[in-house]
Description:
Two copies of one chain form a homodimer. Chain A has helices spanning 18-30, 68-78, 89-120, 127-138, 142-147, 149-159, 161-169, 180-195, 206-220; strands at residues 3-8, 34-39, 57-60, 63-66. Chain A is of the alpha+beta class. The first copy, chain A, has two domains: 3-78, Glutaredoxin, CATH 3.40.30.10; 89-220, Glutathione S-transferase Yfyf (Class Pi), Chain A, domain 2, CATH 1.20.1050. At the A-B interface, helix 3 and helix 7 of A face helix 3 and helix 7 of B.
Amino acid sequence: MTITVYDLCGANDLRFSPNCWRTRLALAHKGLEAAFEPWHFTEKERIAFSGGKTVPVLVDGEHTVRDSWEIATYLEDAYPEKPSLFGGDAGRAVTGFINAWCDSHLHPGVIRCVLPEIYDRLDEIDRPYFKESRERRFGVPLDDFRAKKADHVAALGQTLTPLRTILKAEDWIAGDAPAYADYLVFAAFQWARLVSPEDLLQADDPIHAWRERMLDLFDGLARGFDAAT
Amino acid sequence: MTITVYDLCGANDLRFSPNCWRTRLALAHKGLEAAFEPWHFTEKERIAFSGGKTVPVLVDGEHTVRDSWEIATYLEDAYPEKPSLFGGDAGRAVTGFINAWCDSHLHPGVIRCVLPEIYDRLDEIDRPYFKESRERRFGVPLDDFRAKKADHVAALGQTLTPLRTILKAEDWIAGDAPAYADYLVFAAFQWARLVSPEDLLQADDPIHAWRERMLDLFDGLARGFDAAT
């Protein structure tokens, strides 16, 4: 039975959601086929069966799982014969720290850089919802982010320091081979890449070289989704 | 042959260095005995044989290892029959991210809260070196940190978000049992605890409860070093 993932989309079917990219790459790592159903921010009732209001939502036969971290741990436990996403229990727990860091620091850092550009790439039906909810969350108009982009890019550079440190020494965050720790972090850069033509990384940043390796994985899966121009 | 660790000390032989605490707990986890040689900031020539100017320095027979992360990976590889610090290769790599995060975000966050109190607890011979080097590093007088302590404690609280998130769900950062990821992070709180009577954590913070569990490990090893009063 094919797995289904409800996957956020913007205008022209742009699949930009970082949380959905975490799931897409976790499925590729496990070698599992899935159908990615396009879903809009405002289609809350379509995923009400999941118990939540956000995607990704994964449906695998009788199992419905929401939240990208819950989905990753579900896939790890449901498909133990497939390549491991975490490399064992300690790897899973410690990857959970990176998951929490992405949520509390990396995603807020990236979204401040690209928030108006996400808005520009949404379907018309989602724009009022997005503008109202994000302006309420951040307490400032979307255009303020455009005006202060350079400051936000500089702040993100500081947030990325630990990532830069380890990628100077290792090819992958998870060590000798990519795993869920890499997908988690990459998903945030894929998000930025798909909505904004301006690169958040300098060409000589070790994170830039790692992102290139990530774009090549799974026969260029992530690279196959065209970057914004 | 006994392992020797050169271990930073303040006045009254106070062993407060977070990087040295990482090593002390890694050794306890491995069940390895060690002699902790007191060392002062200004005794650079005593550790020149290590190739560096900072502690911890570990001497294990013919092996001299400096830098707490290098020491942890040395102990893991040299004593594979002892309990693992990382739970495998993926766990080691991902723990490396937490190591880098401690260096880039947790330690700078903690030191801003307790810098003048560290100064107060140093031996007289180290005070001029410490004051001069830290004021140069931060670009402000030590007393500025005292005046702005509440701001620094609030900023640290924000830095700790990912830690708080995972410790709401798990007893240990490394999952079912403590490992090097826990020692790394705890070492920063032990540092603050030993130099400052003011707790950086609220009693209802899940990090506080975890710190209590950490203080109990290895027959109360860390608790046996009296907190500042």
